[in-house]
């Protein structure tokens, strides 16, 4: 009888174990349409337009927890600055009535429009299709959240020459150039090693230089770039790139050719792990 009584107790305990709660997952646009969430998107001036140019605030309007997927290829539009395409999918979990704010990986789809700032708001657009969707997926797959990825996007959206897909990482530049050429069904253009515009590793091609230096202390190994932007906050050239900058103090020198980059003003920025840390204004043709 004692054995039987113990068995009954075990069965009772198992039958009263609570089942795990399932949290439903919704696509971003579907969750908005069904009023399960609200969304506010503004420019993120702490990151360049090819990394994390926007911040999104999502609010769960329901009394249950939910997950929201913001897919790769989702677009966001603006009335006054560049439109953007998401280049890395995000999955966001929200408790009942909870709000969360986070930056989104995205890139500009309009080279001739100004970059985002904290005063600009964005509206959700459609999901990209065709060549643009394929390229956005490839950028996420290869983690090309950099100028090479951005130049590739412009090759599709703005028709810029494929040789503008150039940078310090020549192997990755060639890969993306070839990928974009295959999407467009055009030949991969020949690379001219004597063209300063597309050669990032030979400062000997500079004929008349403007120079500068950043002094910075890094508390840990960091991905560091120095990039030059025009007066519309659009990147025109990387001047330094080291994804494995060591911990400690560094004097980071840079230079560019003022016979090639002839605007009256440029903004040169030190970017650490995707975040703008120093902004320098340069007027190389002043006076």
Question: Could you explain how this protein is built, in words?
Answer:
The structure is a single chain. The protein is an alpha+beta fold and 287 residues long. The chain folds into 3 domains: 22-128, Immunoglobulin-like; 130-191, no CATH class; 206-282, Immunoglobulin-like (Sandwich), CATH 2.60.40. 21% of the residues lie in helices and 37% in strands. It has a 7-stranded antiparallel beta sheet with strand order 8-3-2-10-5-6-9. α3 packs antiparallel against α4 (147-157) and α4 packs parallel to α5 (170-184). The radius of gyration is 24 Å and the shape is globular. It starts with a helix and ends in a 5-residue tail after the last strand.
């Amino acid at each position: 009888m004692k054995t039987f009584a113990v068995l009954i107790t075990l069965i009772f305990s198992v039958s009263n174990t609570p089942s795990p709660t399932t949290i439903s997952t919704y696509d971003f646009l579907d969750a908005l349409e069904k009023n399960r969430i609200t969304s506010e998107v503004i420019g993120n001036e702490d990151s360049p337009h090819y990394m994390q140019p926007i911040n999104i605030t999502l609010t769960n309007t329901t009394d249950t927890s939910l997950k929201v997927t913001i897919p790769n290829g989702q677009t966001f539009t603006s009335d006054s600055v560049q439109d953007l395409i998401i280049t890395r999918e995000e999955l966001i979990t929200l408790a009942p009535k909870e709000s969360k704010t986070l930056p989104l990986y995205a890139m500009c789809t309009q080279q001739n429009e100004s970059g985002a700032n904290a005063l600009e708001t964005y509206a959700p657009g459609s999901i990209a299709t065709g060549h643009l969707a394929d390229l956005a997926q490839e950028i996420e797959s290869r983690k090309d959240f950099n100028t090479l990825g951005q130049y590739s996007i412009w090759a599709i959206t703005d028709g810029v020459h494929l040789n503008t897909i150039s940078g310090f990482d020549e192997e990755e530049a060639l890969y993306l150039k070839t990928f974009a050429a295959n999407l467009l069904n055009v030949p991969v253009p020949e690379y001219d090693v004597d063209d300063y515009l597309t050669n990032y590793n030979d400062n000997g091609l500079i004929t008349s230089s403007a120079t500068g230096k950043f002094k910075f202390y890094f508390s840990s190994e960091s991905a560091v770039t120095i990039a030059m932007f025009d007066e519309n906050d659009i990147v025109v050239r990387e001047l330094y790139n080291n994804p494995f900058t060591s911990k400690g103090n560094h004097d980071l020198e840079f230079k560019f050719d003022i016979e090639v980059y002839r605007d009256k003003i440029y903004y040169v920025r030190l970017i650490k792990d995707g975040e703008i840390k120093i902004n320098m204004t340069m007027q190389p043709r002043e006076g």
